[in-house]
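Dear H.,

Thanks for agreeing to be a second pair of eyes. The structure we're designing against is below in token form, covering all 113 positions.
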């Protein structure tokens, strides 16, 4: 069973209390977006075998959205953090790279970290 800690209320919630919201840190485009940008926002997603950054909602708790870093193959959770951040915290990236040195994060403006 997947258990994530809500960074807002501190509750360790199992997956029955949560709602998955897909990939984290997607750049959203407004009405001025080109067809290619809007298509990319709607349909282009990472689907990695390994560490992935995701959005989750503590639906049956505080109701807030947050981000989580977890491995899609082992369900190992590396950490959770506020949904208001534009990138994963440096401490979390270091924790992931300690166990998975070859892991990189796709920044939606260009380079990986």
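And this is the sequence the design step returned. I haven't edited it by hand at all.
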């Amino acid at each position: 069973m997947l258990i994530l800690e809500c960074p807002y209320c501190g509750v360790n919630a199992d997956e029955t209390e949560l709602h998955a919201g897909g990939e984290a840190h997607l750049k959203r485009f407004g009405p001025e977006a080109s067809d290619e940008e809007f298509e990319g926002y709607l349909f282009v997603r990472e689907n990695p075998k390994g560490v992935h950054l995701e959005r989750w909602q503590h639906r049956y708790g505080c109701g807030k959205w947050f981000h989580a870093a977890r491995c899609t193959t082992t369900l190992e959770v590396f950490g959770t953090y506020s949904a208001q951040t534009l990138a994963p915290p440096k401490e979390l990236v270091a924790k992931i790279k300690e166990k998975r040195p070859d892991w990189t994060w796709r920044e939606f403006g260009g380079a990986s970290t």
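Two observations from my side: The mean pLDDT is 89. The longest strand covers residues 51-57.

Warmly,
E.
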